[in-house]
Each structure stands twice: as C-alpha cells, then as structure tokens.
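User: For my dataset I need records formatted as: sequence, then structure tokens, nothing else. Please produce one.
Assistant:
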Amino acid sequence: MKRLLNIELQKLWKNTASRVLIISYFVILSFIALLASINFNIIGIDFRLADQGIFNFPYIWHFNTYIAAILKFFLALVIVSMMANEYTYGTLKQNLIDGLSKKEFIQSKFLTVVLFAFMSTVFIFIMSLILGYSFSSYTEASIVFSDLQYILSYFIKLSAFFSFCLFAGILVKRSAFAIGFVFVWYLIEQIIHGLLRWQIIKDVEITENIVRFFPLESMSNLVKEPITRFEAYKAIEKLNNAGVVNEKFYGTHWYEMLIAILWTAFFIFMSYRVLKKRDL
C-alpha cells in the first residue's frame, strides 16, 4: 500500500501544474479564516462576520465544511489531470510493463483520492478548532465536539466526488473533457430532477426521495447548506413570517452516508473495469 501511494505522490509532485494546484487549494482553504476580519457596511451599519456567530461552536463545523466543499474542484482538477497525464506521457503503460497490475494501478489512484480527502478533512478540522476557540462564544468541550458528524460527512463527500472524477478521467482520458463530463452529468441530474418535480411526478417529497440516490445529489446531501441555520437568518425569517420559522433537518442520515459510500465503491469498480477492458 505504501509503495503504491509513493508512486502516485512522486508523479504528482514532479508535475508542476499538479503541485501548484494542490498548494493553491490549501492556501485558498485557509482564506476561510479571512472571513473573521472582513467588515461589512450595510445601510450605514458596520459589522464583522466573526462577531455574528459564524465561527461559534458547533455551527462552525457545518459552515466550514460546506464552504470548503465548494472548493473541492481544485483537487478534482488534479485528479483528472493525473489520469490524463498517464495517457499523455505513457506512464500507465510503463507502470504495467514494470510489473504493476491494473488492479494495483487503480488501488494506487484510490489511495491518492482517499489521501486528498483525508488531508483536506484534517486541515478543515484543525482550522475550525483554531477559529472556533478564537471567536466562539461557547468553548465547553461538550459543545465544541458536538456536531462532528459534519467532519465525517465532509470526508465521505470528498472521497465520493474524487472517485467520480477518477472514473471520469479514466473513461474520457483528457482532463478538459473529463471535467466537462462531470459538468454534463450534473446538468443531466438537474434536468431529471426538474422533470420529475414539475412534469412527471409533481410531488416534492417523492421527487426528493428519488433524486437522493443520484450520484452528485447524494454527495450534496452529506453537507447541507448552513445559511438558513444561522441565527441572524432565522431572526430575519421570523420577522418576515410573523414569528414562524421553517424547521429543517441539517444533519446527515446514516443512509445518506451509505448511498455516497456505495457510489464511491461503484466508481472505483467501474474505473477498474474500464481500464481492464481497454487496450493500452
């Protein structure tokens, strides 16, 4: 396992574009901390985001993982590029000639995907702790370490999405087309979602129960949007709706995690099947 991972890391670090993207990704992730120092002026009122509770425990776990998940496309570029480079520079064929089996090749890619997801998760965990202890109004251990399911959900979400990108890279071979494939898949899911909701089933609950099994939708459900959970937003909503606040579940059900994990296994398996049948 260590040998397979070392092979992939050497390839990535020796590639300038991949190295720049990886470093840029973690630098940009750290920019979340800059939200703490941003001052806004709205209708003559100055306020700082950090003072509004976005870095309060346990809300910070939800907010930071959601924002960080938006930036996952930087590492997605690295993943599809590393597959494109395998075909472009002939390293895949050379690895097979040197004795690496196709199964081991896919294993090495999957280990890289999991490593990226793990590194990003650890980074967000540490940064959230630092920001939380710096700005949160609540620092009791029972509050600090509640809602940590968002960290696990974030890890599963990244692992699933990167596995999907790996499959796209193997299937399409070219990084630009692979990214296009992911985008087209997203559009197809949205179109089907719209057709089910407005033309075929016309029922919100039934439609949502169906689309939650779609690959990208299942990943999205792991870390739901946190904005409407924010206390300031709830206050505005309560004011606009005569004291009524719409209750929403912001956590992650066990079966939502299971769906994403099954999709991860499916994409890795299909990556192996495509590579196994392909004439290199």
